[in-house]
C-alpha cells in the first residue's frame, strides 16, 4: 500500500453566491457502499433543495463517480472531483447541496461555485496523509525502555501496549519505511548485541 491523502473528519461548509446557498458535506469513506449511503443520507435530508450534486473517489478499484443532479452537464460533479484531485484527496465523498437563490449563475459561474464549495469543505475537514504501518513486538530490558519508546516516537510510531514482566515487551505500530531505521537504532543501543533489544 502506498501513502495517500484523505479527509480527517466529516464536515459541512456553507457558501452563498448571489443568494444561492451551497452546503458542502464532505466525509472520508472506505468503499462504494459507504459513499452511496452518505449521498442518500444528504439527499434525503435536503429533499427540498434544487440540487444535491455529488462525487466520490476511492482507491479500491480506482473508482470515481459523480452526478450533476440536474445542473447543466459538467458544471457540478466534475468541479467537485477536480477540487478533490487538486488537493490530493481520495477515499472521500462530497455532496454539495444547492438552494437556488433566484439568480442564474451561468455554466462558468456554477462550475466555479461548486469547485469553491468543495474546496471549502476539504479545507474545513483537513487532509491527512495515510501511510502503511507494520505492527511489531519488541523485547527489551527495563534499562532501555525509555530510550526505545523515544526512538519509536521519533520514527513516527505509536506504542499500543507495554507488558512489564522479567523484561519489557512493547507492541507498537511503525511506518513501514521506518523499520530499517529502527533495526539500526536497536543495534546501536545494544552495542552490536541485538539480543538485548530484539524484535519478536
Summarize, please.
The protein contains 5 helices and 11 strands, in the order βββαββαβαββαββαβ.
Properties at a glance:
alpha+beta; 200 residues; Ribosomal Protein S5, domain 2; five-stranded antiparallel β-sheet; Alpha-Beta Plaits; 2 domains; 32% helix; 5 helices
Describe this structure in words.
The protein is α+β, with helices and mostly antiparallel strands and 200 residues long. Helix content is 32%, strand content 35%. The strands form three sheets. The chain has a five-stranded antiparallel beta sheet, with helices on both faces. A four-stranded antiparallel beta sheet has the order 9-10-8-11, covered by helices on one side. A two-stranded antiparallel sheet has the order 1-7. A hairpin with a 2-residue loop joins strand 2 (11-17) and strand 3 (20-28). Helix 2 (77-86) crosses helix 3 (106-125). The model has no long low-confidence stretch (mean pLDDT 90).
* CATH level 1 class label of the largest domain: Alpha Beta
Number of helices: 5
Query: Which range best describes the helical content: under 10%, 10-25%, 25-40%, 40-55%, 55-70% or over 70%?
Result: 25-40%
Q: Order of strands across the widest beta sheet?
A: 2-3-6-4-5
Q: What's the layout of helices and strands?
A:
Elements: E1 4-7, E2 11-17, E3 20-28, H1 32-45, E4 51-58, E5 63-67, H2 77-86, E6 92-99, H3 106-125, E7 127-130, E8 133-140, H4 145-154, E9 158-164, E10 168-175, H5 179-189, E11 198-199
Antiparallel strand pairs: 1-7, 2-3, 3-6, 4-5, 4-6, 8-10, 8-11, 9-10
